[in-house]
Amino acid sequence: MSNSPNVLALSGGVGGAKLALGLSLSLPVSALSIVANTADDFLHLGLPISPDLDTVMYTLAGLNNREQGWGLAGESWHCMTAVERLGGPSWFRLGDQDIATHLMRLNGLQQGHSLTQVTENLCQQLDVDHQLLPMCDEAVRTYVQCAPDNHHDTTYELPFQSYFVEQQCKPAVTGFRFEGIERAVISPAVASAIENADIMVVCPSNPFVSIAPILGVPGLKQRVLDNISTRVVVSPIVGGIAIKGPAAKMMAELDMPRTPLAVAEYYQGFASHFVLDTCDECFVDDILALDMQVLVTNTVMNSLEDRKELADTILRWIQASG
Amino acid sequence: MSNSPNVLALSGGVGGAKLALGLSLSLPVSALSIVANTADDFLHLGLPISPDLDTVMYTLAGLNNREQGWGLAGESWHCMTAVERLGGPSWFRLGDQDIATHLMRLNGLQQGHSLTQVTENLCQQLDVDHQLLPMCDEAVRTYVQCAPDNHHDTTYELPFQSYFVEQQCKPAVTGFRFEGIERAVISPAVASAIENADIMVVCPSNPFVSIAPILGVPGLKQRVLDNISTRVVVSPIVGGIAIKGPAAKMMAELDMPRTPLAVAEYYQGFASHFVLDTCDECFVDDILALDMQVLVTNTVMNSLEDRKELADTILRWIQASG
C-alpha cells in the first residue's frame, strides 16, 4: 500500500457525507471514490430526486445547508409556494436552486445519459473533483415495512421518502424491501473503483436503508470481499443514538440493542475494521471478539476540522496496522 | 342566438390572450371556450412547456407579467441562476413560480392525464373559470423554415422556440412545418366547444404560427365551417406592424403586404367577419370585396378596459348584424 491508499467510501446521506467530505479533504483526487446509495431515489413532481447522491455532492461542493441538515445553503422556496398554490404536494420540499439539479438530471436522463454520467457532469460543474458514483444506474426503490398501527390491521409498506419525510419515521419498522435490486448491475465505474481500492470505508450511515442497498447490488458485496481486504465500518451509533436519522429507532424496532456492538454484529463477516466513538469504549472487547480490528476515537463530526480529523485518524490507523 | 351567444375563441400567446381576457370579462363562464395553440410547445430541461396555453391561463388568472409581456408577475429566477451554474441552457428563461406550472404538468402527464385534463386542473387551481383548451392532446411541433444566410448555404429549419426566443426572430422565414399535425385529433372537449359555439373569434394572433396550427388539426377547420356560421377574425396587423410578435416581419418575408387586407385575404373563404383598427380604415372596401362583413374599431388593447371594450364591441356588432 502506498502512502496514499486508494479508498472506496460507501455513503448514505447527511451522516455519511460528513466523513466523505473528511476523506476528500485527506486524499488526493485520484485516491478516493465515493459510492452513494440511490435506493431512496424517487420521482417527485415528475423530477428524478436522488437525495443521498445530492447530499454528498452538495457537501463535497461546500454548498450544503449545515443548519438545516439537508439541501443547499441560501436556498429559496418560490417554486414550492407556487406548487402549493396549484394544489401540488408540499410534504417534500424542493428549493429553487435544488430544482435546477433535478432538472439537469431529468434532462440528462431523457437524453439517454446514465445516472453515473449525469452525476459526473453535475460534479464537474460544481467543482467536485473526487469521484462520486451512484451505487448503480438502474432504479432501485426502498420500501419500509411497517408494523400494524391504528390505521393498519396488518403490516404494510411505505415508499422510503413517505416513511422518512412525510411520516417523519414515526411508523415502527419491521423490515425493508429494495424493489428492483435484482435487476441492478455493477456499473463499469463502480467495478473499476472496487478494483482500484486498497481500503473500503463504510461511512457512518444507516446500515439498513443506506448501506444495505449498496451492498445488495447483485455481486457487489462479493466483489468487495474478493478485492478489498481492508473493510472499515464507522459506527453510525454513538452513545445509544444515531447522530443523524432513524438508525437507532429502527434498531430498537428490529429488536437489536442500540449499540455499536449490534452494528458490528450486523457487519460480521464483512467488516475487517470497526471504528467506534470514545464514549462507547466499553464495547471494544466484544467487537474484537467478532474478529475485527477496533479503533476508538472521536467520531462525532461537528466542525469541518472534525471531519478531516476522523478521516486522517482512520487512514493513519489503517496504514499503521497494515 | 340568445343574448349571450356561445363563443369559441382561438388564441396564440400574448396578443391573443388580451382579447381572450376581454371576452372572459364580457361573457359568462358557460358562454366562452378558448382554444390555444400548442404547436409552440416544447420540452426544455425535461419540462413540457406550453407557452401559449400558459400565457392565456396566466392572463385569465390576472397573474401575467404585463411589463415583461410574458410569464408571471413578481417572478424570481433562482432556479435559472442555478441551472446556469450547472452548465445548463439559459436562453429560455423559466421563472421559479412558472416552473411550478411545468412541474405540475409534467407530473400530470406522467400519471397519464391528457394535456386537456392537466390544463383544466391548473385552471381550476388558479380560479380560471372560463374553459381553456389546448388545440389537441397530441404533440405538434412548429418548425420555422428559414432562408439561407451567412451560416447556411440552403434553407434550413429551426424549432419554433429556437427561432422565436434563442434567435429572436432574426432569420428570414420562408415557410412553416407542423411536425405531428397529421396525427393530431380533435379532442372531445374541442369538439364539444365547436358544437356549442354560435360565434368563433380568431383573436389577434399570428396567422402563420398561432392560428394555422389550430386550424391545421385534421378536420378542425371543416368542423368549424360546418358548425359555426359567424367566424370573426381580428387583425393582428395594425398600421403595418404587429402589436406583438413577428407576424408583420414574417408577412414581409413571405412577400405579403403588411396590411390587414393581406390578413383578410389569408383568411378568405374562412372568415365571415373581419375586425380592423381605425387607423387601417382605408382597407375596408377591399375587405368587403372579399365577401366579409367588416368592423372598424380601436383594436389596440393597452388597458384592461380596452380588452373588455373590444370584446363588447365585437359581440354587439355580431348581434346587431345577425
UniProtKB/TrEMBL annotation, chains A, B:
<protein>
    <submittedName>
        <fullName>2-phospho-L-lactate transferase</fullName>
        <ecNumber>2.7.8.28</ecNumber>
    </submittedName>
</protein>
<dbReference type="InterPro" id="IPR002882">
    <property type="entry name" value="CofD"/>
</dbReference>
<keyword id="KW-0808">Transferase</keyword>
<dbReference type="Pfam" id="PF01933">
    <property type="entry name" value="CofD"/>
</dbReference>
<dbReference type="InterPro" id="IPR038136">
    <property type="entry name" value="CofD-like_dom_sf"/>
</dbReference>
<dbReference type="GO" id="GO:0000287">
    <property type="term" value="F:magnesium ion binding"/>
</dbReference>
<keyword id="KW-0460">Magnesium</keyword>
<dbReference type="InterPro" id="IPR010115">
    <property type="entry name" value="FbiA/CofD"/>
</dbReference>
<dbReference type="GO" id="GO:0043743">
    <property type="term" value="F:LPPG:FO 2-phospho-L-lactate transferase activity"/>
</dbReference>
